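<goal> How does this chain fold?
<body> The protein record starts here
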Amino acid sequence: MNELVIMKDQQAVTTSLQVAEVFGKNHRDVLEAIQNKISSAENSAQYDSMFAQGEYKDKSGKRNKMYYMNRDGFTFIAFGFTGKKADEFKLKYIDAFNKMEEAIKEERIQLPTDPMEVLRLVFNATENTNKKVDRIDSDVDYLKNNQRLDPTEYGYISRRVSEKVNEYIKIHGLTLTAA
């Protein structure tokens, strides 16, 4: 049942395929129920946050539509289903979501409670950031100083240098001779 709930975009979700399989329903009926909710005018903005369209490939390689749904979307659709299978599934689904949320909570980084340790972490992070910034500054300076000129820039600079040399020669009454 844990494979029923998967992580997608850092959110615990299930799919319309999984719901159809576990409830013993046709996938097209589950799709229709979701599409009816999404296309209804009432609360459509809320429905959009509960469901995300996706696709899967069937055994023949054909792409088919499916929906991902978060806990609210599942609750909204699946809790309308009735029967023994539906009740068993609902309980297992709730348990799977709870386990997934607990696992997520356990993976979170625990910050120290000692103020000195917090300051040490902040200092280390700042020091690492400063080192990275210094390296980036050095790289940028190197690139600025060693950048190759493209032909257009080279031509422009060459013309300007020639103009200035000719201007200097003219002002000082010099002549150019080949050596």
